[in-house]
Amino acid sequence: MSVSGTIPAEKTGVTLPPDISILQAFAQISATVLDLDDLLTTALDILAHTFNFDLLAVVLVDDRHNDLQLKAYRSPHPVGLLETLYPAIVEAVDNGRVVRREDCPTNHPPPERLSGLVVPLTIGRLVIGALLVADSRLTHFSVHDEQLLSIFASQVTVAITIAQLYKKNREQQQQALTRQQIASHLQQLVTIINATLDLDDVLNLILEHIAVVIPYHSALLFLLEGRSLTVTAAAGAARDFTGYTIDLNLEPFYHQILAQQYPTILHDIARNRPRPLRSPPFLRDVHAWIGAPLVSKNKIIGLLSLHHTEPGYFDDADPELVHTFANQAAIGIDNAQLYQREQQKVRQFQTVAKIGRQVTEIREVQRLLDVVVERLHDDLGYEFVSIFLYQPKTESLHLRAASDIPAEKLQSMQIAISLEEKGVIASAGRNEETILVNDVTAFEGYITGPGRQDVRSEMAIPLMSQQNLLGVLDMQSTRLHAFLPDDLTLAQTVADQLAVAIGNAQMFEQRDQRLAELIAFSQIAMAIAAPSNLDRTLASVLERVKALYQVEGTSLMLLDGDALHFKMAVGLPPEMLEPFSIPLGEGIAGRVARDGKPIRIDDVT
């Protein structure tokens, strides 16, 4: 080789310059260049400027993935040409020695043939990579070539080590700065959370502040309710999924995350989805995913999940950051939930007191039932509230008031439940015991009410007065494990108040009915005592009987011999007023006349 670095075509070996100018040049430059990529590019530039090789490359060992990575490449030919010498590179790295390949046919001509020299980059016995030199015009490299390039590779190795130490130091400094920023955001989060006790505000602030520390494409905050996770706050592309519920019995993947109480990271959930994990709609287009349990006072209260559409977006340091953030967030959520529960208790006590005042003033049973249903549904937010009254003669419970059925429609529906049925309401009435079912699918023989196919929890409390069943107060929810011990206490208190009020209202209604009967009987007696016209007197009596018992019509039949003959009627349609006779003992009227005893039939069908 000439001093200018050109390679005569007729030579079969390289004659490197006798001086060590390239070593001096690289030593000077490497002392000022600390960026690894710039450093390796400079090394290849120096070799290319001095020796006109066809191909120069540096590969380094990637410890994390246990493979080789091309870090610098200089050649007029495509990088695919490296495939020809790749086995030599692997051999040099594995064995820690120089490997030659002379006059090899290439996989991607031109050039047709190639000779290469691979020098390992070593620190003691540790191989960190390799320097590759190759040319199409050579058949072999001389011993002197190998010696000089080995010395140059040693310089490159030292420079790489220094650059990596510099990079590591910079990363440590950046990590320290990041930790300071995280500590600052955590302090801000704690300050803000302590300043507000509104649960919705706390949840939204958590998602807002974690986005500063770990930017995301979308995020969800689940709260744990029994065996279900419910999305209570959402941000980014997932904001439309508030209220979405995950049943832990059907999603063991989420149950595993909560049980380990430490974040889980998935670098590409779309390609490497864990076997137990299904595909909820909020994971559509999501690749990178982190899920962090929310734990406060050793109690799991929920889950924070961060999502991104870019595979591998979250790195291995992010779970620890999310874990630290989630711990602080859980404390704020727990405090807000405690405050919310206390506020709910206050509202419950106020509503119970309000119900107590109202029921003592109401004398009508139906109005009483409507008021209690309204207070429980409107003031306390219970989804479905129903009250059934017991009919001893038929041993059945009749629906008299419901929060989701208008009163006029309810009368026409005539919903009744036999005490012999297996449902929650019938069981509570039959056993005269409160029944709380926080997962109706686990209740044997559960019966779904009309329009309540989505109900998941139910609570039925018998209405008892002096050990007598008056009815059942029933409350239902579309959420699993919706009813807490406080709800049961409140419902029992309201049921006790309602039972006393129903007893009182029924007593007043019976008194009013008895008084109305006495007045009607008195009027009937007066009409009979002073008859001016028999037909007019009988019609007056029938009118008073009709009004007294609030029926649609009344009729009178007179006995003559062995038959009853129609006399007159009030309130009946004209087609029913045609004269007719009934033999004694036949039909209801004939039996009453024969036996001389009244008969009551509630359903003539």
CATH class of the largest domain: Alpha Beta
Q: Low-confidence runs (pLDDT<50, min 5 residues)?
A: 1-16
> How many domain units?
4
Secondary structure: number of strands = 20
Proportion of residues in helical segments: 40-55%
Characterize the overall form: rod-shaped
State the distance separating the first and last CA atoms. 120 Å
Mean pLDDT: 84
Strand order of the largest sheet: 8-7-6-11-10-9
CATH-defined topology of the largest domain: Beta-Lactamase
Give me the CATH architecture of the largest domain, please. 2-Layer Sandwich
Walkthrough of the structure:
Helix 1 (21-30) runs parallel beside helix 4 and helix 4 runs antiparallel to helix 5 (199-213). 42% of the residues lie in helices and 24% in strands. The chain folds into four domains: 21-169, 2-Layer Sandwich (Beta-Lactamase); 196-342, GAF domain (Beta-Lactamase), CATH 3.30.450.40; 362-505, Beta-Lactamase (2-Layer Sandwich); 531-595, Beta-Lactamase (2-Layer Sandwich), CATH 3.30.450. It has a six-stranded antiparallel sheet with strand order 8-7-6-11-10-9, with helices on both faces. Strands 14-13-12-17-16-15 form a six-stranded antiparallel sheet, with helices on both faces. Strands 2-1-5-4-3 form a five-stranded antiparallel sheet, sandwiched between helices. The chain is an alpha+beta fold and 605 residues long. Strand 12 and strand 13 form a beta hairpin. The longest helix is centred in the N-terminal third of the chain and has 53 residues, at 143-195. The chain is rod-shaped. Residues 1-16 have low confidence and may be disordered.
